[in-house]
Design a protein that fits this description.
Nucleotidyltransferase, domain 5; globular; single chain; 5-stranded mixed sheet; 3 domains
Length: about 350
Amino acid sequence: MVKALGVSKNTISLIVDQLVKEGIVLDVGLEEQQGAGRPRKLITIEPRSYISIGLSLTKTKCTYFIMDFFLEVIKKGEISFPSERLAPQIEQIIELAKHLQEKYPDSIGLSIAIPGLVDPDTGIVHESTHSQWKNINIKETLEKVISIPVYILNTVKASALGAIEKLSGSDLSSAFYIRIEDGVGGAFIINNKVHNGISWSAGELGHISVEPDGPLCNCGQKGCLETLISLPVFKKTTMQMNQDLFSDGSLNLEKFSDPIQKVLSQYGMYLGIGMTHIIHLLNPESIIIESPYNQAKVFRESTLFSISSRALTLPYSNTDIQFIQTPYSSAFGAGVHSVLRYEEV
């Protein structure tokens, strides 16, 4: 540290002593002595000296996570949006942000995950896929009423940061995250940073065409992944088969018939085609798949077989592919984003 900062050991000691007094750094004892000389003092950051706030928006609610610097959740909750109209929703978000800053005045940042096309630099939500939000600068609006830094990012990209943190402790040099839900989304993470692309749409796996004669997508192509394997498509398919696989709104694949098994096998084949493109084009260290279909063995096996029969052997064998069944909150991922942005300063 002395060499990196270009200051004396005495100056470092004075700085550390001051940080200990302020409660930012904790003195945790002395290092076990290996040889001659004075033992070194061991210190660590006091986790709750830095608080991060993460919010995630849907059409009907706003979820929030309060986390310490080590990403332990201190508190979480949500507020409902009684109205789908834009103005009341923004007013509720403003009031929540003001309340959270008042309760946690020393927060290092407030990040909001929003579904849709989001410019993280300006904070403009160009278009949200689940609401009436269009060309809204929510960052600018919030920074007028609260004094902590405000960050805006896409929901899937926020979830990717949360999943990578939980699964790998941020040790991955690169990872591609796939989320199958109401749509099919993706995010490419390089050294803990989201790669957004020039128009913030990097990772749009859902609009890779995998079936030339498939249904027409709203993007203009036929056979996009989103039109073939998203959860609404699966719900429609199972209803046509008179199969009730949804309990309390969630998908339960503990018991399913042969026709459903064939559907899930087909879904795995389609996803594998898309993932092969990701492996060849981006060559990520890891691919993380978050999907309600992951609970079905036939889906996982079909996905892997589809990739192995198409991908080049070397890049495929060096890609760690993980199927996760527990969804990671995008509000948690937003909180991770605040910490990462603070560390960049």
